[in-house]
Amino acid sequence: MSSSRPFDTELPLVAAPMAGGPSTTALVQAVAGAGGLGFLAAGYKTPERMAEELDTARGWGVPFGVNLFVPNDQPYDEQALNAYAAELADEAAALGAEVRFAPGADDDHWADKIALLLDAPVPAVSFSFALPDRSLIAELKGRGTVVLQTVTTLDEARAALDAGVDALVVQGPRAGGHSATWTPTRAIEDFPTARIVARIRALTSVPIIGTGGVDGPGTVREIMAAGADGVAIGTLLVRAEESGASPVYQDALVSGEFTRTTITRAFTGRPARGLHNGFIERHGEHAPTAYPAVHRMTSPMRTRAWITGDTDRLSLWAGTGFASAQAAPTAQILHGLASQLP
């Protein structure tokens, strides 16, 4: 992996993995065709679906990556979960859905997904939510896979470097979707991604990909100037022609109905940034930190909200630069974002 650009790509731009639909194989392929590096999102997918997408990507003959959620088993308060389920009953009834209360363990098929990556290695793997075992990192590297770890603090970066990862994805707090924090109970501060990139660059010479709050080429330039070797783009690709995001989601970003984003645990029990809507307003202060139990609890409601187009009750993940999202081919979006780079 180059210390100047990820995989020596033409553009120092990366498609952030967006679980739940936006990161299609078509989007990742379009990023590669434009000269960037794309990441598939394995989160919430079955191992079978993940294997199909990896097989498709291998056929392109270009580098690509895949992102996995590392199980982060945090203790949670079952009484608080029960109380939250009761609080959501009226929301569910309004949608004709149920509140699914299933507090048991859920590791997102971790062992099966890791087995796929060890049996048939891919060019790059990134991890989020926690740091995998050092032995797994070494095993993946031994198979020729570049291992990247998503970090949000200096302490996380130090631990990842000590574990032997090849590169860091440094996520600033203005990123859309789930915070990659390893400590989901902590408060997420608000500051530019460039600040944390600069602080972590002072620790290490390994490649750094900065991400979060990108609203145009100026922010890309700032993150690169702070010491990043690449910038990952998420929200600004949600409306790309190759995105798998639903029309309801894509339209919400530019409808004018939503004027700000909020970090909330209301939908999943883990801090995540999305468009500030009624569901967050009503329940954001009461949601327990209990991922993935809350994620499973609200899943039927969110599914019904997608079907009915009820944006007041949808988890509309978005970074602070959401208003700049364009409906255009991926290549056009990426080249525009790179337009102010040397």
UniProtKB/TrEMBL annotation:
Q: Name one GO molecular function term.
A: oxidoreductase activity, acting on the CH-CH group of donors
Key word Oxidoreductase present: yes
Pfam families given for it? NMO (PF03060)
Which cofactors is this protein said to need?
FMN
The regions listed as transmembrane in this protein's record are none
Listed A to Z, the keywords are:
Detoxification, Flavoprotein, FMN, Monooxygenase, Oxidoreductase
Entry's PROSITE patterns? Answer: DHODEHASE_2 (PS00912)
Tell me which InterPro entries the record gives.
Answer: Aldolase_TIM (IPR013785), Dihydroorotate_DH_CS (IPR001295), NMO (IPR004136)
Family designation:
Belongs to the nitronate monooxygenase family. NMO class I subfamily.
Protein's recorded name: Propionate 3-nitronate monooxygenase
**Organism of origin:** Propionibacterium ruminifibrarum
Taxonomic lineage of this organism? Bacteria, Bacillati, Actinomycetota, Actinomycetes, Propionibacteriales
